[in-house]
Every structure is written in structure tokens, then in C-alpha cells.
């Protein structure tokens, strides 16, 4: 039986990039199935397309219609504020741009950056806005833009319909997301979507920061604040793997034990010990070569006291609030380098993203980096609220996840 190439609405059965109004709304989707279908060329493609690339693709590619919902569920906000602004949203099904990959999300990673968006520290262009910055799941549709499909970097991604992927995108706490292809990474065979969602953002952040913000070398002494958190544990493992000494800070003996099991050589309990005194004792009064500080306001003054001459202070985040303005002359005393980098600017080009994420996944697969997952939270407003309360309240170790759908 010959199937007409036609997009139905409202069920939104889609079968390719249709551009003629008679053939339905442009979808930008290229959906593939494992069952070949006989598709006629003449009379079964958009008007005037018989000799186009669409005709050739429909003639040679196993393509099938797939019913997709017109609405999706997401967890996000309609305004900035406290935890209670987080709510369940009903959003239109995402329109897949020609250069995007459509993903059915299985897990979303919880990060401090989610709280920055929720509180308004980072700007949001429009509301409603789904929260979450990292997702992992299954590819539903590929780009249709010929310039993308012929791009060598795109080909190196190995993206296919049905493939398991991780993606760096705002709005990850959604049933489906449409993501630019250069923010999507295919997973190795033995890496689950759960571990991928727990490792992409924090893992790539730690890897790029210890390479470019401060290139950690053998023999360095490095201070990592909140070392028992998801990001801190990855920092500790990467720094240790490079032959450096890791000094970490945390709040409880249990968290200290976990940090040591992940590579920390010394752990300071900031609730009981004097941070500056202990760091200077451990470094014979010289201080540390580098600091990775995700706390911000509460630790900045101590950082300036324990950094050594020509040391590098990397501001990773603002868990306690943003560092207040200060005169650059404060850095003169020790010729300190101060950075506030972002992951996105280290993986700005497709090649940079692929290179770093490929290296990260290899480090996880070979056991150099172990991903510690604190737990899965439900895909509800209450679940996301609780995840942020636990994260910001210092009650967790390792990574927090939102389970959005079954694998």
C-alpha cells in the first residue's frame, strides 16, 4: 500500500519536512523507522519537489509517520522568586528547527544554575520557562537542514533516530526538547542515560575548568570548595588523576569520607575548623596554586588569604550569593589571577564541544571519573522544588536527577 506523505493535525503525524501548505504545517522533522515503506515520488511529495532533495530522500529513506502530542508537560516557572514559583506547565509541543534534534527526555540533571534562573540571577527572555539545563534521552527526529547534514562536525556526532543522547539545553525538565545539533552528544554503548544526565554539565564544566581556567599539573596543590557535591567530586577525581594534591572543604565527617574516596587528600570541615589556618598548615604557609570555588560570597575573603603568589582563583558559582564588587587592586598583593568562566564559552564551537564531551565520556567509561548519584526526584513541581531545597540546603552528596520518563 502506498502511503501519502501528509501531516495530520491535531494528532501531528509527521513524515518529513513538508513545505507546501497543502501538505500541512512545516515540521522541520525527519523521522525514520526500521520498517521500509514504499513511497511514490510523483504525486506524493510537495508540489514542485519531484526533482528536489526531498523527493530523493523520500524515495530512498525508510520513513514513517509518528504521532506526537500537541501539548507536553514540563516543570518550570511563570515568574522568578522562591521555591514556590516552580510549577507544572503545559506547553506546546516544541517546533523542531531545521538545525535541531528532537529528544524524548528520560532524565534531567539538577544544578545550581537552575536556582539562578529561578531566582532571577540569570535573565530569562520570556515566560513560561521550563527549568533544567541538562537532559538525556532518545532521539526522535534529526535535523533536515542540508548544510547541517553535510557538515563534517555533524557527521562525527553519529546522531541517529533512536540513539541515546545527552544535551546541554535550557528547559530540560520537559517531556520533549528541541536542541541545536551542536549541543547534542551521542552516548557510548555502555553509558546509560541516567549517568549521562548526571555527568554532562558538571563533568564538562570540571574538565574544561581544570584544563583551561587553570591547567592543573602534577605537583600542584588545589583547593576545591564543597568537594562532596556532584561537581566537587568530579573536580577531585580529575585533579587527582593529574597528579596534584586535592584539599577539599565540606560540612560533615560523612561527606569528608565520601570526598576522600573520590580522590581528596585532605578535607577541611568548615563547620568545625578554621579554613585559612588549616590550608596554610597543609601548604607550609605557601597557600594553594589554584582554587575552584562554587560557594561565592561566603568564601571569597578566605580564598584571597590562602591563594599563593601568582595563584589562580576560579569562581565556579554563587551558592552563598554573588561576590560583592571589589577593587581590582585587591589582587595586586600576590599577583592573583581571578576568573569567572562559563562552560558554554569553553565549548562554544562544535569541535570544542565534541572534543571535551568525548574525553569526558571516555574518562567515565574507563573508571577515572566515577559519577555519584544522590537520588532521583519525581517529575512534578513538588519533586523539582524539593530537589532545589535539598541542593541548596547542603543535604546532598553527588548528583540529583529528575526522572522524566522510562528508558
Automatic annotation (TrEMBL):
The keyword NADP belongs to this UniProt entry's keyword annotation: yes
UniProtKB keywords: NADP, Oxidoreductase
GO terms assigned for molecular function: mRNA 3'-UTR AU-rich region binding; NADPH binding; quinone reductase (NADPH) activity
Domain Enoyl reductase (ER): 81-402
GO CC terms in record: cytosol
Protein name listed in UniProt: Probable quinone oxidoreductase
Originating species: Dichomitus squalens
Amino acid at each position: 500500500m502506498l502511503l501519502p506523505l501528509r501531516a495530520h493535525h491535531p494528532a501531528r503525524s509527521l513524515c518529513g519536512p513538508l513545505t507546501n501548505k497543502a501538505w500541512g504545517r512545516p515540521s522541520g522533522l525527519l523521522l525514520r523507522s526500521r520498517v521500509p515503506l514504499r513511497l511514490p515520488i510523483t504525486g506524493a511529495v510537495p508540489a514542485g519537489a519531484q526533482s528536489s532533495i526531498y523527493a530523493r530522500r523520500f524515495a530512498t529513506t525508510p520513513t514513517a509517520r509518528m504521532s506526537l502530542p500537541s501539548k507536553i508537560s514540563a516543570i518550570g516557572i511563570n515568574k522568578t522568586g522562591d521555591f514556590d514559583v516552580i510549577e507544572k506547565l503545559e506547553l506546546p509541543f516544541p517546533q523542531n528547527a531545521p538545525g535541531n534534534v528532537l529528544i524524548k527526555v528520560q532524565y534531567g540533571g539538577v544544578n545550581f544554575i537552575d536556582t539562578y534562573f529561578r531566582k532571577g540571577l540569570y535573565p530569562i527572555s520570556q515566560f513560561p520557562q521550563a527549568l533544567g539545563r541538562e537532559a538525556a534521552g532518545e532521539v526522535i527526529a534529526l535535523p533536515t537542514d542540508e548544510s547541517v547534514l553535510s557538515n563534517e562536525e555533524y557527521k562525527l556526532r553519529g546522531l541517529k533516530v533512536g540513539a541515546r543522547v545527552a544535551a546541554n539545553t535550557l528547559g530540560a525538565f520537559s517531556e520533549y526538547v528541541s536542541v541545536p545539533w551542536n549541543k547534542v552528544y551521542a552516548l557510548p554503548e555502555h553509558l546509560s542515560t541516567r549517568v549521562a544526565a548526571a555527568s554532562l554539565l558538571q563533568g564538562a564544566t570540571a574538565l574544561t575548568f581544570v584544563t583551561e581556567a587553570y591547567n592543573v599539573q602534577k605537583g600542584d596543590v588545589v583547593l576545591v570548595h564543597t568537594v562532596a557535591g556532584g561537581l566537587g567530586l568530579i573536580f577531585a577525581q580529575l585533579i587527582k588523576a593529574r597528579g596534584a594534591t586535592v584539599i577539599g572543604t565540606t560540612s560533615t565527617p560523612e561527606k569528608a569520607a565520601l570526598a576522600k574516596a573520590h580522590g581528596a587528600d585532605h578535607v577541611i570541615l568548615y563547620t568545625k575548623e578554621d579554613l585559612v589556618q588549616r590550608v596554610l598548615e597543609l601548604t607550609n604557609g605557601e597557600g594553594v596554586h589554584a582554587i575552584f570555588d562554587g560557594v561565592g560570597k561566603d568564601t571569597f575573603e578566605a580564598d584571597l588569604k590562602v591563594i599563593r603568589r601568582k595563584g589562580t582563583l576560579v569562581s565556579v558559582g554563587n551558592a552563598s550569593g554573588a561576590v560583592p564588587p571589589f577593587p581590582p587592586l585587591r589582587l595586586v598583593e600576590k599577583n592573583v589571577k581571578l576568573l569567572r568562566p562559563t562552560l558554554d564559552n569553553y565549548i562554544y564551537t562544535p569541535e570544542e564541544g565534541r572534543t571535551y564531551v568525548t574525553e569526558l565520556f571516555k574518562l567515565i567509561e574507563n573508571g577515572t571519573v566515577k559519577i555519584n548519584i544522590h537520588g532521583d526526584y519525581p517529575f512534578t513541581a513538588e519533586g523539582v522544588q524539593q530537589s532545589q531545597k535539598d541542593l541548596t540546603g547542603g543535604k546532598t552528596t553527588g548528583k540529583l536527577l529528575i526522572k522524566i520518563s522510562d528508558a
